Amino acid sequence: MKREIITTADGSKTIQIKDWGEQYHSKHGAIQEAYHVFIYSGLDLFKNRDLSILEIGFGTGLNAFITLLESEKRNLTIFYAGVEAYPVSTEELNQLNYLEELKSISRKSEFDLMHTSSWQEEIEISADFILKKEKINFKDIDELATYDLVYFDAFGARVQPELWTVEIFEIMFRAMKPGAYLVTYAAKGSVRRAMLAVGFLVERLPGPPGKREMLRAQKS
After folding, report:
1. What is the mean pLDDT of residues 48-63?
2. Which of 32, 79, 109, 180 is most buried per CB count within 10 Å?
3. Cβ atoms 218, 178 nearer than 8 A
4. Which residues contact 36 (CB under 8 A, 6 or more apart)?
5. Non-local CB neighbours of 140 within 8 Å, separated by 6+ positions
6. Cβ distance 115 to 84 under 8 Å?
7. Which residues are registered as beta bridge partners of 126?
């Protein structure tokens, strides 16, 4: 499928899949969306502790990199697992402008390490941030009661409905610790019902720019 780099409304770039009319991030602002959904609605629930995060859709590494930057402000020590079946190419990564837009040029070596490090291995990105990238399908995740927070950032249900099913959310539920949270930009009724069916407590929150609502779910 044809892919191209586009600039979103906040100046940050993302990858668009032309055949689907789908982007890796919101056209209304890639960085804005990442902060609103995953930092302000997820990471901000935790301070001054060790934290295990699972990201569904590692993609461009934007969520992981922002989490690295923001975890330092919150005194968090993080183990971060990023699952991605179809990694972004080096050519595409070289066209993104996250370091510039986040005013983090000095952190280039860490951003690069996130992408050049080996898959299926734990890599120390910084003293308080360990990354493990897993090149597997989401349905093959088999951890039990491991994660405090899940960033669910798969492509939308319009183009990949199989990623937003009861089966997938059962896998998420099993992988999460009791009391853990899952946050996603999605707000479709079918997604909410799938979450409720596996036992999540689900709340609707105000969405990022361009979206009225998003969902946050907690494992009771």
Report:
1. 97
2. 180
3. no
4. 207, 208, 209, 214
5. none
6. no
7. 129
At residue 36, what are phi and psi to the nearest 5 degrees? -65, -50
* Residue listed under structure tokens 């992981």: 64
* Percentage of the residues of the chain whose pLDDT score is greater than 70: 100
Query: How large is the average pLDDT for residues 173-180?
Result: 98
Mean pLDDT of 77-103: 97
How far, in Å, CA of 37 to CA of 107, rounded? Answer: 23
Per-residue pLDDT tens digits for 96-136:
999 999 999 999 999 999 999 999 999 999 999 999 999 99
User: Are the beta carbons of 219 and 177 closer than 8 angstroms?
Assistant: yes
> What are the φ and ψ backbone dihedral angles of 190, each rounded to 5 degrees?
-65, -35
Angle of the 189-197 helix axis to the 166-175 helix axis, nearest 10: 50
Q: Is the pLDDT of residue 1 over 90?
A: no
Q: Give me the domains of the chain, ranges plus CATH numbers.
A: 30-89+104-219 (3.40.50.150)
CB 149 within 8 A of CB 46: yes
Q: Mean pLDDT throughout 162-171?
A: 97
43 pLDDT more than 90: yes
DSSP secondary structure string for all residues of 124-192: EEETTEEEEEE-S-GGG----S-EEEEEE-PPPTTT-GGGSSHHHHHHHHHHEEEEEEEEES---HHHH
CA distances from 218 to 38, 63, 68, 150 (A): 14, 20, 23, 10
The two structure tokens encoding residue 208: 């990022």
